[in-house]
Design goal:
single chain; 359 residues; Jelly Rolls; 2 domains; globular; seven-stranded antiparallel β-sheet; 20 strands
C-alpha cells in the first residue's frame, strides 16, 4: 500500500494513566473513511448477505454526521434490523446526539416504529453464516432510540430489552426528535440508559439488570422503520432479504426514516460509581452520569498502546509524546498544538500512513 496522509476528524485518544484504550473508539464523524475502517456492519459480520441500509455514510450525505437511511426493517423479538457497531469488552459510557426525521427531512418519521438509537447486543455465533445457522430465540440486546413509535402524534422515545428473543418495550412522548442526546452506560451486569433534550438536563430513563450479557458486546447504532410492512413477513425472511418494491414487485413499502448521529464518544465509568452501583439510587447514578459530552483533547498526551488492524486515528492534544507501534494498514495523524516527540522505539511499518503535525 502506498503511504498516504490523512487529516482525519475521528477523535481517538488513549492515555497511559488517567485514560484507557476505550478512547480509541471515539468518532466525531468528520471523515468518510472511518465508516468502513472503524465500524462493523451486522449484515456482513453475521453473513446475511443483504444490506438493509439503503444509504449509510459518514461526512457525506450530512457533513460531520453518520447518516443512516434504512429500508423497511425492524428490531423486535426474532426480527433483526440494521446495526453498525464496535466490539467493547469493558464497562463503558457511550454518548451520541441524534436527529430522526422522515426522508423528506421536514417532519418526524411517519410510519409506526421508525426510530434511531444506540444498541448494546450480545454477538451471535454463526460458524457457517446466518443463512445456514440462524435459529429463533437467540436475540439479546437493549436499546434506546428516538423518532416515531406508536400512539399519539409523536415524537417518541422507545426503549427495549430483549432476552432470548422475547422483547419488552416502553414508549414515551417527547417534545422533539432533533438533537436528542442519548447515553448508555454498562456497569457490570447493569445497563443504564439516559437521554437529554435540547436545552434540558439529563434524565435517567431506565435501568436493566442483564447478567446474561457476555464480557464483550456489540455497541453501536440502530435504525428501523415501517413495522406495519415488516409484520407481514416471518423473521427469517425479513432478516435475509431487503424488503423493497424492487425485491417484491407489487408490494407497497413505506420506509420513512433518516437517522443522523453527530458523534460517538466513549468514556470510562466515572470514578466511584462502580463501587456503589449495587445500592445506588437513580439520583446517585444521575449525579455521576449527567456530565456534558465534549471531544477529548487533553493538554498533554502520552501514547504507548499500539495502533493496528486497519484503524484510522486522529489524535489531538496540546503536547504529544509517543513510543507506540503503528502496523497492519493503520492510518494515523498526530496533531499537536505545542510539541510532538516520537520516542525511541516508535515504529511504523510499510503498510502504515502516518503524519505528525504541529498546528
Amino acid at each position: 500500500m502506498n503511504k498516504r496522509l490523512f487529516f482525519l476528524s475521528l477523535f481517538i485518544f488513549f492515555v497511559h494513566n488517567s485514560y484507557t484504550q476505550i478512547q480509541l473508539l471515539n468518532d466525531e464523524f468528520d471523515h468518510a473513511a472511518t465508516l468502513f475502517a472503524n465500524w462493523q456492519n451486522i449484515n456482513d459480520t453475521e453473513g446475511w448477505n443483504v444490506e438493509q441500509l439503503e444509504v449509510y455514510d459518514i461526512n457525506t450525505s450530512e457533513p460531520g454526521h453518520l447518516y443512516m437511511m434504512p429500508h423497511t426493517s425492524s428490531w423486535y423479538e426474532d426480527y433483526k434490523g440494521t446495526l453498525l457497531f464496535k466490539m467493547v469488552d469493558q464497562n463503558f459510557v457511550m454518548t451520541t446526539e441524534i436527529t430522526a426525521t422522515n426522508r423528506a427531512e421536514n417532519n418526524i418519521p411517519g410510519p409506526s416504529f421508525s426510530l434511531a438509537g444506540i444498541m448494546v447486543r450480545t454477538p451471535r455465533n454463526y460458524p457457517n453464516g446466518a443463512l445456514a445457522d440462524w435459529t429463533p430465540g437467540g436475540e439479546n440486546y437493549i436499546f434506546l432510540s428516538t423518532g416515531f413509535a406508536s400512539g399519539g402524534a409523536g415524537p417518541h422515545l422507545e426503549v427495549k430489552t430483549t432476552t432470548d428473543g422475547n422483547s419488552v418495550l416502553s414508549i414515551s412522548p417527547i417534545s422533539t426528535s432533533s438533537n436528542v442526546q442519548i447515553r448508555v452506560a454498562r456497569i457490570g451486569a447493569e445497563l443504564i440508559v439516559l437521554y437529554r433534550l435540547p436545552g434540558q438536563s439529563w434524565v435517567l430513563h431506565q435501568r436493566y439488570m442483564r447478567p446474561d450479557f457476555p464480557d464483550e458486546v456489540q455497541l453501536g447504532f440502530v435504525t428501523y422503520t415501517d413495522w406495519n410492512s415488516v409484520n407481514n413477513y416471518q423473521p427469517f425472511f425479513h432478516n435475509s432479504n431487503v424488503l423493497s418494491a424492487d425485491m417484491i414487485p407489487g408490494t407497497v413499502f413505506n420506509p420513512d426514516l433518516i437517522g443522523r448521529f453527530d458523534f460517538s464518544r466513549f468514556d470510562n465509568v466515572p470514578a466511584g460509581l462502580e463501587a456503589i452501583i449495587a445500592t445506588a439510587s437513580n439520583a446517585d447514578i444521575l449525579a455521576f452520569l449527567s456530565y456534558d459530552s465534549e471531544p477529548f483533547c487533553p493538554a498533554t498526551l502520552h501514547i504507548d498502546d499500539d495502533i493496528n488492524n486497519g484503524n484510522i486515528v486522529f489524535i489531538k492534544a496540546g503536547t504529544i509524546t509517543a513510543n507506540n507501534t503503528l502496523s497492519e494498514d493503520a492510518e494515523a495523524t498526530y496533531q499537536a498544538q505545542n510539541s510532538l516527540e516520537l520516542q525511541a522505539g516508535f515504529q511504523a511499518d510499510g503498510s502504515v500512513s502516518f503524519s505528525g503535525v504541529i498546528q
